[in-house]
Write a structure and sequence with these properties.
- The protein contains 11 helices and 11 strands.
- The protein has 342 residues and is α/β, with parallel strands linked by helices.
- The strands form 3 sheets. Strands 2-8-7-6-5-3-4 form a 7-stranded mixed beta sheet, sandwiched between helices. A two-stranded parallel sheet has the order 1-11. A two-stranded antiparallel ribbon has the order 9-10.
- Strand 9 and strand 10 form a beta hairpin.
- The longest helix has 26 residues.
- The structure holds pyridoxal-5'-phosphate.
- InterPro entries: Aminotransferase_I/II_large, PyrdxlP-dep_Trfase, PyrdxlP-dep_Trfase_major, PyrdxlP-dep_Trfase_small.
- One of its GO terms (molecular function) is pyridoxal phosphate binding.
- This is Aminotransferase class I/classII large domain-containing protein.
- Pfam families: Aminotran_1_2.
- It comes from Penicillium capsulatum.
Length: 342
């Protein structure tokens, strides 16, 4: 592996957090406790019982993840996705790392959406030792010109396209039309597409039709891999449960093999908590709490935008340009996202 760039965003946020009174740079709702999970459940007795770990036998879990958890994760997608398509991981960080380490090799060319979460650009670059081309689609503009600019970046050695949808840091989403065109392009060039969908399904604009997950738009022959986790929409980053979802059995087998060598199974304790959080007892209530918070924060942001922020809202997305940071208000500077001059 070539030298790995410093993860500036995480280094900066952890070093600044203790001096800040108000933290505006986070991208997740406040973390839930076990007590919160029980409180949110529609059947508190069952949730409380399922979360009491006294008699949990601390054996090594299954390599793919427990059946109950994989089933609960599959239920986050439409019914074309089944538990056989799901592999559990240590957070989305672990999911993305597994995908890059398991599917890329020295010299492969990778195209990453830009701007994007640092890991999605820096890790492929370190693994392949090659340039990562940055794709900058015009989200609000013409689909054909965005696709054209993506196609122009494709080389004979292009192995993978990496997207983050919805996007961190811009909050933008690719339109269903753009999603379809990207899938056509990767299919015709036999390229693997990896989409970090960690913010799904936290869509808070009632006027926007929920966009499909890329894995829902794929079939067995597609080389589509989606990653996700409990850290954002579900407010459970400390449970360290993430996942990889793909319908492609060759890719699944490769990733499962890599997981066996690198982590074996994920923590059984984490899996028990994650399974209950995604159960029908808890899942809708967690989501509605977090959608409510997102909407409330959006309203607050609009009200306060005059004084400290230049806020540009739009249908189904919130693009926030933070111009000024006053006193102990913690926002993260754009340089932390490996911005390259725009
Ligand atoms: C796009 C994206 N992917 C992955 C992660 C890491 O998630 P996890 O806590 O599940 O490892 C983050 C965290 O901010 C993120 O924004």
């Amino acid at each position: 592996m070539s030298s790995l760039a410093t993860f500036e965003l995480l280094k900066w946020t952890t070093s600044q957090a203790e001096n800040a009174t108000l933290i505006l740079s986070g991208s997740a709702p406040p973390s839930l406790s076990i007590k919160d999970l029980v409180g949110l459940s529609s059947d508190q007795a069952t949730t409380s019982h399922n979360l009491s770990l006294d008699s949990l036998s601390l054996s090594l879990g299954r390599i793919q993840g427990s059946e109950g958890l994989r089933k609960a994760i599959a239920a986050l997608y439409d019914d074309t996705v089944t538990l056989e398509n799901v592999l559990t991981t240590i957070g989305a960080t672990g999911a993305n790392a597994l995908v890059f380490q398991g599917l890329l090799k020295q010299g492969d060319h990778v195209i990453s959406l830009y701007p994007s979460y640092t890991q999605l650009i820096s890790l492929p670059k370190a693994i392949t030792g090659a340039e990562v081309s940055l794709w900058k689609p015009d989200i609000d503009g013409d689909v054909n010109s965005s696709i054209h600019s993506l196609e122009n970046l494709v080389r004979p050695t292009t192995k993978m396209i990496v997207l983050n949808n919805p996007n961190n840091p811009t909050g933008t989403m690719l339109s269903p039309q753009l999603q379809h065109e990207i899938l056509k392009l990767v299919h015709s060039h036999d390229i693997i597409i990896v989409v970090d969908e960690i913010f799904r399904p936290l869509y808070h604009d009632p006027n926007t039709h929920l966009p499909p997950s890329f894995v829902e738009l794929s079939d067995q022959s597609s080389r589509v891999v989606v990653t996700g986790s409990l850290s954002k929409a579900w407010g459970l980053a400390g449970v360290r449960t993430g996942w990889i979802t793909t319908k492609n059995t060759d890719l699944f087998t490769e990733l499962e093999k890599f997981k066996t060598y690198t982590v074996n199974s994920t923590s059984l304790i984490d899996e028990v908590i994650a399974t209950e959080a995604l159960s029908h007892r808890c899942r809708p209530h967690i989501l509605s709490k977090h959608l409510g918070l997102a909407q409330q924060n959006l309203d607050l942001l609009q009200i306060s935008s005059m004084s400290i922020l230049n806020f540009v809202g739009g249908s189904g997305r919130a693009r926030v340009l933070l111009h000024l940071c006053s006193f102990q208000l913690m926002v993260a500077p754009s340089t932390m996202w490996t911005f390259v001059g725009d």
